[in-house]
Amino acid sequence: MKHSRIAALAAVCLSTAAPGQEATPPRFLNADVHASLPGGRDQAMGRFSPGARYEALGFTMLDLIVRAYGVRDRDWVLGGPPWLGIDKFDIIAEVPANARPAAARPMLQALLAERFSLAVHNDSRPMPVYVLAAGKHPALKNSAGGASQCTTSGRDVTTMVCTNIGMEQFARELHDAAYDYFDRPLIDKTGLTGGFDFALHWTPLNQIGTRTPDGQSNDTRAFDAVEKQLGLKVELRNEPVPVLIVDRVNRTPTPNAPGVAAALKAAALTEFEVAEVRAHKPETPFKYATYDTEVDILGLSLRNLISEAYGIRGEQLASDAKWIDTDAFDVIAKAPRRVPWENMQVMLQNLIEQRFKLTCHEETRPIAAYVLTVRKRTAQLADADPSRHSDCRRSAAAGGVSYSCRNTSMAQFAERFRETIWSDVENERLPVADATGLTGAFDFTVTWRPRARPNPAGPGHGDGSQAGGIPEASTPTGEISLFEAIDKQLGIRLQKEKHPMPVMVIDHVEHPAEN
C-alpha cells in the first residue's frame, strides 16, 4: 500500500542557496532516479535537511532545472527538447549529514549532470517581465530608520506595511505577497534610492468580485493599488534578463547503482520515537501543526488523517465504515531526529496502520470528478509549436483571470488544471480527467471572471476603486464562469460527473486502543 501511485507524494522545492558555495560540494548518497509512474500527482513542497531523506517526486526536467539553478522564471530556461516540461521523474536520495543548505542547488546540479548528462550555460536575453517604475509623483515617505522589512496580513483585503524598505527589496516582497497577480518576475526600475515607510492595501485576486453585506464590491487590484497609493507603476515589458541555455540532456536517466533501493530503505526512518493516538475530546480545540521532529494534530477524522498521510484526496478513499468521517482523533508524535515532511508521512502511514489496524487495496472505481469533453462542433484549439517547452501559466487579466498553455495536450491540461485553478471551481478539490479523445498538443488561452459572490468573512475593507491598468491576455466582456469560458473559448466542456479513477479501498479498520 505504501507504494501505491495514489499514495505517492510529489515535488520538492529546494532551499535557496547562500552566497559562497563550497568548492567541492557534497553529493547526494544512494540516489534513486527513475521516470515517474503514470497518473496525476498532487505537488507537495518538501525541505532539504542534512542527514535526512530527500524526495522530489513527479517533477518535470524543467522543474528540476529551475530549482537546481535558481532560475526565477520557467521561461528563462531556453533550448532543449519539448519534453522538458512533460516527462516527470522521481528522485529519492540521502542528504549527507555534513551538508549545508548552501549545497542544495549544487548537489542537484551534480545529480542532473551525472544521471541525465545535463549541460547548460548562462546567457542574457530580452524577456517579458513586470517592471516597477516611478510615476510622475511618487507618494513615498523617506524612512526615519529601523529594520528594513515588510509585514503582510489580511484575508479579504491584503495589507502590506513596510519600514525602511528599498525599492529592489520591495519589488521582491510585493511579487511574493501578491503572487496571484504576478505570473512573471517583478524587477525594480524606479531609480529611487534609500529606504521608505508606507502601507499598501489591495484585494487578493480570488476575492475580486466578492460583495460585503452592504453591497460594496472588493475590487482594489494590486497594480491599481501600487499606482494610486504609492504613485508607482507596474508595467509588462521586455527587459534583458539572465537566462539558462540547455545544451544537452538525455531523456532517460542512467540506471541506479546496485543496492540503492535497499540502502535507501535501511536509512529511512519508518517509526516515530514516541506516539499517542486517542479519541478527540469535543471540548478540545482543533489543531494541525507539523514540525521538523513533531506532529501535533487534534480533532481530525480518520479519512482526513489518511489523506494527509498518503497524499491522496478524500474522495479517493472508499470505506463502509461510516465512523471514519464522524469520529475525530488526536495524533501527537515525535521523530527521533529532524526529517522532511515526505519522511514524516511514511511514519504517519505506519502509525495509522498499526493503531487503527488498517489494511486496504487499490482499484479503479467511478467517483465524482471534473471531466473534459468535446462539444459537437470542433474544439477551438490552435496546433502547438512543437519546438517550445510544454508549459501553462496563470495570470491576472483585465477584469478576471487568464490561464495560457503552450504545447500542451488535453491530458496534461487536465492534470495541470486541478493543480493550478481548482480554487476557482467552488473550492472543490475533485480530480480532473480528460475524455476529449483529442491527440497532439495545442496552444490556447482561457480567460474568465468569477461572478460576484457574498463575502463569507463579513464586511470587506476595500476602497471600492475601479479596476484598470492590468496587463491582459484576452478580455471577454461581463462576468463569465470558468465553466462557461472553457466552453465558449475552447469549445470544450468541463462537467462534474462520475468517472473511473484510482481509489484506495479500506478492507479493515478498527478504533484505536487507548494508549
The helix-and-strand class reads: alpha+beta
Number of domains: 4
Query: Helical percent range?
Result: 10-25%
Q: How many H/I helices?
A: 10
Distance between the termini: 25 Å
Strand percentage lies at 25-35%
Which spans of ≥5 residues are poorly predicted at pLDDT below 50?
A: 1-22, 453-477
Strand arrangement within the widest β-sheet reads: 3-12-5-9
Please tell me how large the radius of gyration is: 24 Å
The assembly state of the depicted protein chains is single chain
Tell me the total number of β-strands: 25
- Average pLDDT over all residues: 83
Shape: globular
Sheet of most strands: 4 strands, mixed
What does this structure look like?
By secondary structure, the protein is of the alpha+beta class. The protein folds into four domains: 5-118 and 249-267, no CATH class; 127-241, no CATH class; 274-356, no CATH class; 367-453 and 468-502, no CATH class. The protein has helices spanning 61-69, 104-116, 167-177, 222-230, 260-267, 302-310, 323-326, 341-355, 410-421, 482-490, and strands at 29-35, 53-60, 77-79, 88-94, 119-134, 141-142, 149-153, 158-165, 186-188, 196-202, 210-211, 232-248, 274-279, 287-290, 294-301, 317-318, 328-334, 359-374, 382-383, 391-397, 400-408, 432-434, 442-448, 453-454, 492-508. The strands form seven sheets. Strands 3-12-5-9 form a four-stranded mixed beta sheet. Helix 1 (61-69) crosses helix 2 (104-116). The radius of gyration is 24 Å and the shape is globular. Residues 1-22 and 453-477 have low confidence and may be disordered.
